Task: structure prediction
Amino acid sequence: MSDAANILNAIQQDERYSDLLDWGTPRRGHPEGTVRAHIEELERNLTALSHKLTIAERDRLRLLIHTHDTFKAKATRGSAITDPRSHASLGRQFLAEFCDDSDLLNMVQWHDEPYALWQKQRRSQTVDEERLQGLIDRIDDWDLFLAFQIIDNGTEGKSREPLQWFFPMIAQCVETRFSVVDLL
Result:
């Protein structure tokens, strides 16, 4: 069993994790409702993308799948990504108790940033270059981050438009084996 698989096993045994799995009701972007149902959908997406992934990448992606949105029930709704009360910050803090991989921790913290960049660009008609560069600087493994974007945003309730915008733009800035053609 890999380190990531052992970490996931420990996370799944933690009461804080299991107590939050049934939180949530169907809502915009998450018609599946609960955290548990979201995780199940993402696990299916991981399986669909697995032909492009190594075993180690799949194990690391499972850590992201099981921690990125789990703490929404404890988060302050509408808080910024960097707010310590955001679901991203709470997920990062939880994962940090099990794992010291700074790249995985950054991926949990910044997993919604591509969507936020897309939203801001739609409102202002310009790309927030400083914010984009901040994301580029924070993520090391762009293949893993973009694979997670495909998995997390390839769900029934989410539009593909944000990633159709983000992938060509980020391809000009980082090297990755993933592109728009990989979207689920």
Observations:
- DSSP finds ten helices and no strands in the chain.
- The chain has one domain: 3-182.
